[in-house]
Amino acid sequence: MNEIYLDNAATTPMTPEVIDEMTRQMKESWGNASTGYSYGRHAKLVMENSRHVIAQSINADDNEIVFTSGGTESDNTAIIQTAFTRQRLGKHIITTAIEHEAVLKPLHFLEQHGFEVTYLPVDEHGNISLADFKAALRDDTILVTIMMGNNEVGSRMPIHEIGEILKDHQAWFHTDAVQAYGLLPIDVKKDHIDLLSTSAHKLNGPKMMGFLYRREGISFPSFIKGGDQETKRRAGTENVPAIAAFAKAVAIDTADEKQARQTRYYHFKQKIVQGLKDNHIPFEVNGQISPDNLNHVLNIWFKGISTYVMQTDLDLAGIAVSGGSACTAGSIEPSHVLTAMFGPDSPRISESIRISFGALNTDEDIDKLIAAIVKIVDKLNKLDKGAN
């Protein structure tokens, strides 16, 4: 069976070019970048060249990039360290109700330590209201953490507008760009972003690798205690081969390639929706199909079919999709994103799947997905008729 992978919002396969770069550097750049002899100097040079490539991708300065183990560490560092460092200025934080758990759980932790968090609601398309944001902003707000794009429904947040509002406010602006980095153009200076989190494995890079952008002038202690690596901003010996592989993935992902992927994924979305309509499948899209959203994510409510059944039957057909965020899909808890969009009693919460595209997907993959869904729905309808 030729399997089809359509869960790229969870992780992406490393491309051959990235694998080649990582294995090459494992052979050539295994030295400790903090040492002063030739092995270390070579590793340091590779790391700093990689840092430059990555910094340019978001219009940052090289010294504003701090390498981390990925999005979770970057989010936790930005949120928790900002809160404790700036609590003398206030203890109020603003976020949205549909953030990733790597943002929500640190915020819940801070609430247990006396911080107050405002969770902005979203509409049925997964969008926040700028009016709600302005109303929530207070003199004692010290941090705003709002994702660039949602990992379950693909909604895109008004990052530039929020940055404009905050540029003269004391609050630092953090955005979780884990899903958006690699698909959307990002300019941290233009958008007045202070802190930004990413993860390499979302754009065909290695797992356990990412970076935290920290604007020049942002100061807080290292979240991980230990050595003085990353100019005392992140302790731990740097994983130079993974950093080089991350930079290779970023270099491949040019501005033209980002746009091409967004266009191709939008085409995939339209093709799926039209294919389901042509076959009279009862469904609705959770969120909004728009060329401006994160077009690699498509969340669909299949009316009357449980998430578990649809996901399992597609898996048996050799097609991998998700019931929601990969970090919570194994849980019995309902999707907090769909709950925030449609309410806790909506059938969508237990009858939806997430399809997410990647660089290696083709039109043939989409045709096979549509055919498999039609076959599954037809089978279930026959079973229902037989039972009655």
Folded structure, characterized:
- The chain is an alpha/beta fold.
- The protein folds into two domains: about 15-250, 3-Layer(aba) Sandwich (Aspartate Aminotransferase, domain 2); about 255-385, Aspartate Aminotransferase, domain 1 (Alpha-Beta Complex).
- It contains twelve helices and twelve strands.
- Helix 6 links the parallel strand 5 (about 140-145) and strand 6.
- It is globular, with a radius of gyration of 22 Å.
Q: Terminal Cα separation, in Å?
A: 34 Å
In spatial order, strands of the major sheet run 2-8-7-6-5-3-4
CATH superfamily of the largest domain: Type I PLP-dependent aspartate aminotransferase-like (Major domain)
List the domain count as a whole number: 2
Q: Architecture of the largest domain in CATH?
A: 3-Layer(aba) Sandwich
CATH topology name of the largest domain, in short, is Aspartate Aminotransferase, domain 2
Number of helices: 12
Cofactor: pyridoxal 5'-phosphate
GO molecular function: cysteine desulfurase activity; iron-sulfur cluster binding; metal ion binding
Protein name: Cysteine desulfurase
Domain Aminotransferase class V: 4-369
